[in-house]
Design goal:
The protein has about 210 residues and is of the alpha+beta class. The chain has a domain at about 45-180: Roll (Nuclear Transport Factor 2, Chain: A), CATH 3.10.450.50. About 30% of the residues lie in helices and about 30% in strands. The protein has five helices and seven strands; from the N terminus they run αβααββαββββα. It has helices spanning about 1-20, 50-65, 70-75, 95-100, 170-180, and strands at about 45, 75-85, 90, 110-120, 125-135, 140-155, 155-165. Strands 1-4-5-6-7-2-3 form a seven-stranded mixed β-sheet. The longest helix is centred in the N-terminal third of the chain and has 20 residues, at about 1-20. The protein is globular, with a radius of gyration of 33 Å. It starts with a helix and ends in a 30-residue tail after the last helix. About 20% of the residues are buried.
Length: about 210
Amino acid sequence: MIRFTSAIVFLLLPCCAALAQTPGSDQAAPPPANTTVAAVPAVTTTEGATVTQFQKIENAWSDAVNRKDQYALELVLSPLLVDISAKGDITTRNQQLVQVINNEDKTLDLEQKVITVRLLGDIAVANGTYTFKHKVNGSEVLEKGVFTHVFERVRNGWLCTNSQRTTLGPEMTAKSDKKRSTAEEPFHIPFFSKGEKSTTTTTPNPQQ
């Protein structure tokens, strides 16, 4: 009997030792290895090579409109273009091309200046200002406003898939001048100053 009891105790000792070495379920797990979180690069820029690149595209766009160059305009506008004018008119690329070709206004002059560019992979959003000189009912007018152009990377270049313009009328300009503060503005319109008078804003859709 004594030998039987001793044998049982001898067999149980290794099991007890193994249980003592096994950590409990409530024991804190070792901290994970340090992981490095990749910093997200800034996607908005107001200077540098990116703005310069898109300014060249906007210049090519303006020159194509001013020279009524259909083929040069096709190199800037995507076949999927949706254009929303300052008046709310929606046109496609083909309609834009027709407007440029049929426009007989020799005083027409479009200038576009890029202020900021946001890069989102193969999509780029350019914001800026524009001036558009043309004739309405025989009188020369000057339209000023802001634009948002959405570009898509195609092969090694960029094509505009969406364009929207907003005209800054006399009333809007006057209000902004009265409420101007010293705080930093989110979007600067460089060609407007206090006391500047605008000619008129009842203009037709810019030939883009």
